[in-house]
Amino acid sequence: MAAPRTLLFLSLLFAVLQGRGQRLPSPHSPLEKVVTEGNLSLRELVGRWFLVGTASRCSYLAENSHRLEATAMTVTVPDGQSLAISTFRKLDGQCWEIRQHYVPAGAHGRFSVRGEHRVVVGEADPRSYAIIYYQDSQGLSVKLYGRSSQLSDAIVDKFEQRARAVGLSEDVTHYFPTYGGCHTAQPATSQ
């Protein structure tokens, strides 16, 4: 009799969360299998990063890959536990700053954004690159960031291997230009 009660409880919980617009994480999410950088200090991520590549099944990205603009972001650690991300990207000819706050979500290197997006710092050498996994209602994506806009072939190969490991092939991998965009935009001085 305990099993039917458990199932009833879980189905009620699921219904309540769906009614609030929240989703339960998939028990078979590829993000659950991603190993994080256990010895990485968040403070090592502080500073300027450039978006080098993205592997994603996002239909907008596929349809507009010819319009990609160089994208830069600045990372701060305001409280020692969370990440404040300030992304600069061009939209309609103007540079825009998009601010996000990644709060800890369980194990080291795992975060959530506004409770609906999950983020995992999968692998990083804070002096040169970071491979970060994102999951939202649209699915999973893997992004390659660099301290410079150009990275070695070995790092790009590693990124492509990590993307393939979660089911994202080269045909859904897009690389960002190293020119133009908002590379020279300066982050806001206050958070």
UniProtKB/TrEMBL annotation:
Annotated signal peptide: 1-21
Pfam family, any one: Lipocalin
Residue ranges of domain Lipocalin/cytosolic fatty-acid binding in the record: 46-175
CC annotations in GO: blood microparticle; extracellular exosome; membrane attack complex
Example of a GO biological process term: complement activation
Keywords of the record: Signal
Gene Ontology MF term list: complement binding
Gene3D superfamilies: 2.40.128.20
PANTHER family, alphabetized: COMPLEMENT COMPONENT C8 GAMMA CHAIN
Protein name, per record: Complement C8 gamma chain
Annotated source species: Pavo cristatus (Indian peafowl)
